[in-house]
Target: Secreted protein
Amino acid sequence: MNEDVRNIVLGVLATGVSASLGWLARTYLWRRGLRRKQAFFGLPSGSECLLVVNRMAGSERSVHATDVSALLELSALVKDCGARPRIVQHDTARQGLGEIAEFCIGGPYSNRRMAAHLPNLLPGVTMNVEQEPSEDRGMLTVAGETYRAEWGVTEYVVLARLTRGEGVRPVFLLCGQAAVTNQAAARHLARHHKELAGKYGSDGSFALLLKVVNSRAYGPDVVELVADVTRVALSAPSAAPAAT
Model:
């Protein structure tokens, strides 16, 4: 009887030790994953970040419902890191680079801060802000290559992570031709941040050109990587030779 009791006690102890070790291992892996995520997004626990939202086309203060969805997805990322999001309108953002992490949403035609960021941070990328001709509206140009939207069928967005300024916090740019492309970029970032951190490091810069396929049917869910345009996007385009 004593032998049976001892075996039972030893079995219970072994189970308890195994469960504790398993819990410790899971906790360690979770904390390591959280630290990597915080480092990639520049969001240590208790920090604050800036979410710069654009205006809806044709309105000075309204925000497109799809851009609100993008904000919600980014806010969830921020809160997962234990940080606090601060949402500001594009024309009221007065913040230097690198002081706190920043997510800037929308093209330069609807976001004044994005209009300032592109020539400063991504001089190799431009977006047409003119309404006419209609086929060139929102056209992206990257190192001389042009990407026109076919609305609802094929639309493009530049997703970039950049580090500049006095501090070490990154700026994320989600510069899309339409609201659905901004949300697609936010969703792509949420789904693939581990792969991006593995490829570019927790402090590296990158610029990706993404294509949103058939948003009329699939919304922001079907996204293809067109190209890694980091090198050309970070370089100012060469000046055209002067006419002789």
Observations:
- The longest helix spans residues 2-41.
